[in-house]
Specification:
Elements lengths: L1 H18 L9 H20 E4 L3 E7 L2 E7 L2 E4 L5 E6 L3 E5 L14 E4 L5 E12 L4 H7 L4 H18 L4 H5 L3 H18 L2 E12 L2 H51 L2 H16 L4 E4 L8 E4 L2
Helix pairs in contact: 1-2, 4-6
Length: 301
């Protein structure tokens, strides 16, 4: 837009100069002046309209002085002398990874920290953040457009190193991982807020330990699993022993009740009932021995 204004002014000057001399091109002076005037009008009109895309805000500056107001998404009519810089207010991510093709910077960009026990721990991390729209003029004035390399990257790496010294390597790798992530999130969130940034999420993608420490952790985990397995087996054996004890006690109680509860009269009564059932069968014969003893029952078979 500014280029059109410059060309328009140049054409106007050239047109007036051609008119005031005996130059053979003087006959083109009206056309040159008209073209210059049109370019100036187009340049001014174009500079007065500014479109801000969705998910962005415009920061205005006049002769280097940043304006406190912002332009939200849409079409705006502005002072043609204003310079407008777009700022992305959507969620952005910054990844620091040991894998060369994953990080925001080429090469190994993982964060190397020292744990409480003096071991080097390598952390892969992704930061999700966005700009507070109203803070865009402040960021543009105090930091500039390259706020990612000036704020996001150094603050994140520094806070992770500052907080890692409170944990030993094994704790960072296993039991204290979530606690560590919450702790660095809080400290980074506070620093970002002071700079006009909102920290949405902090993702610890991977924590790498020295090989010797990994071997020790794996051995410890295997030992704990074996201990848990043995505990389960012992618990199962105790339950089985308890079941057998209850079963044996039940049998003993049953035998005791039978031995103490049955009398001679009751046994004789049960015998008569059994003989009566056998006598009713068509395949049996009854032989009476004498008057005192019980009859003998024989089957045809």
């Amino acid at each position: 837009m500014m280029i059109l204004l410059i060309f328009g002014v140049i054409l106007l000057i050239v047109g007036f100069n051609i008119k005031s001399t005996d130059n053979p091109l003087s006959k083109f002076s009206p056309a040159v002046r008209i073209l210059g005037f049109v370019l100036i009008l187009v340049g001014v009109a174009s500079s007065m309209f500014k479109q801000i895309d969705a998910g962005k805000v415009g920061v205005m500056s006049l002769y280097g002085k940043v304006q406190p107001d912002i332009l939200e998404s849409g079409l705006h009519v502005i002072n043609p002398l204003l310079d407008v810089t777009d700022f992305d207010i959507q969620t952005q991510n910054y990844t620091m990874s040991a894998i060369h093709s994953e990080g925001a910077q080429q090469g190994d960009d993982a964060i190397r920290v020292l744990s409480n026990d003096g071991l080097e721990v390598i952390i892969d991390l992704t930061v999700l953040y966005r700009i507070v729209p109203e803070s865009a003029p402040k960021i543009f004035k105090q930091i500039g457009e390259n706020y990612t390399d000036k704020i996001v990257r150094p603050v994140t790496r520094t806070r992770i190193r500052d907080n890692a010294v409170y944990y030993d390597a094994v704790a960072l790798y296993s039991t204290k991982r979530n606690e560590f992530q919450q702790r660095i999130f809080k400290s980074i969130e506070d620093d970002f807020k002071k700079r006009g940034l909102i920290l949405e999420q902090l993702l610890i993608r991977n924590i790498n330990l020295p090989e010797s420490v990994k071997t020790t952790i794996e051995s410890k985990i295997n030992a704990e699993q074996e201990a848990q397995k043995m505990q389960f087996v012992l618990q199962k054996e105790k339950q089985e022993a308890e079941r057998k004890r209850v079963e044996a006690q039940g049998i003993a109680d049953y035998q005791r009740i039978i031995s103490t509860g049955l009398s001679d009269k009751q046994l004789q009564y049960e015998q008569i009932k059994a003989q009566k059932e056998l006598a009713a069968s068509p395949n049996s014969k009854i032989i009476f021995m004498n008057g005192k003893s019980a009859p003998v029952i024989l089957s045809d078979k």
